[in-house]
Amino acid sequence: MLGTKKNVKALEDLASFDGVEWTLAHTILADMGGIAIYFGPFPGPSKARPRQKLSKSAGALEALLSEEKTMFLDEKAKDETKKSEEDMKEMLKDYDFITTFMKKQNWWLGGCEIPWKPFEKHLPHAKRAKALLPEDSLEWKTENIAALAGSVWVLDSKQLEIARLHGIIDELPDIKLADIEDTNKSDALVKVLAVMQVVWIVVQLCGRVYYGLPLAPPGTHHCRFFCHCHHPVFD
């Protein structure tokens, strides 16, 4: 929270220069991982023409042609996927730490497909950044560098400020406060259950104080978090 409030002023100044809206809620959204930067071509909407009604004979012919076309496209997609995988291996042959990062992410996500892919223009920068790390540096630092070598960056508020100042992005994202508040609406039942959980934690803490037992940090953290429920993001 302290870091978030500290970054608000700098981001508000940048947003004012860019002509976009920015508030404390925007900063918290960024620190919660809600803002991503996508590099590379962004897939557009399909421009397929609407299908027209066909007679029975024409419909049968259309179905047959559609099946043949589907089989052809499937084979073409397999060939393109295979070629893409080969190109990826060739591109990453000198970037073992990125390959290791990708394998670990794939294991954690259970093989789910994600939009993150290695981005060729970022690879040399990632390699130079890794070379600056000491040999005994922690593994998570190398993984952070590997993540920034991809086509998607999920930035916190400080990283977003740095990206804007260094020209990585031309302007801060134009996100309306109303949109943030709209996506933050919760069902009444969820709120009731959350309050009940906090009340139960308070009861447990009181019981531990009564019996002279030490307090568990997670319990006190939950209560401290609940005390900030007046925050704009939680309204």
Tell me the strand order in the biggest sheet: 1-2
- What is the gyration radius calculated from CA atoms? 25 Å
Q: Helical stretch count? A: 10
**SSE string:** HHEHHHHEHHHH
- Principal-axes geometry comes out as extended
* Secondary structural class: mainly alpha
Query: How many β-strand runs?
Result: 2
Strand content: under 5%
In short:
The chain has 235 residues and is an all-alpha fold.
Q: What would you say this structure looks like, in words?
A:
The longest helix is centred in the first third of the chain and has 36 residues, at 56-91. Helices cover 60% and strands 3% of the residues. The two termini are 17 Å apart. Residues 44-58 have low confidence and may be disordered. Helix 1 (2-18) runs parallel beside helix 7. The radius of gyration is 25 Å and the shape is extended. It has 10 helices and 2 strands; from the N terminus they run ααβααααβαααα. The protein has a two-stranded antiparallel sheet. It has 235 residues and is mainly alpha-helical. The protein has helices spanning 2-18, 24-31, 56-91, 96-108, 123-131, 139-147, 157-165, 177-183, 188-210, 217-226; strands at residues 36-38, 152-154. It folds into 2 domains: 2-40 and 59-181, no CATH class; 186-234.
